[in-house]
Design goal:
single chain; alpha+beta; two-stranded antiparallel ribbon; two-stranded antiparallel sheet; about 30% helix
Amino acid sequence: MSTESAPRHPRTEAPVQPYRPFEVDVTPHYRLPVQAPVTGAVEMYDERDPVVWVPDAYGQMVPMRRSQAPAPMQPTPPRDLTPQPLFDVRAQRIAAGGFLAAGTGWGIGQALAPLAGISAGVLMWLAIGIVAWKIAPAAARPKVENHTHVTNHNKWFGRSNTTVNH
């Protein structure tokens, strides 16, 4: 900075104060509503539920009132150890119905297979008969042979000469 642009009047010295951000009163001021006097039975300190210690989800013991604690675990009833059937009865019935349906379908197929064979055989012989009926008259006629000889001579500039000999 050059000295030519320096101010002509020196600055006056102000007292230096430390930086203080805006001051906030952090003490809470609660305005309680006007309440009617409490009536009823007075609960003494010793009349509350006793505190019991129960394990939480992480295995640590936490205090809890007895009225809020979960019910203690009941012992499991004894198991029935009688042997069960090897296969489920209902599953056996369903499987038997499936086998019955499959067996019935296979049996009907075996019974109707000869009918399919008879119809296929009849169609084959019918086709052979129709072909023989159409070919027989043509085979009885005398044979006529036609021989035709065609000669084509191509020359320059699109000239062609074609000869047909019977």
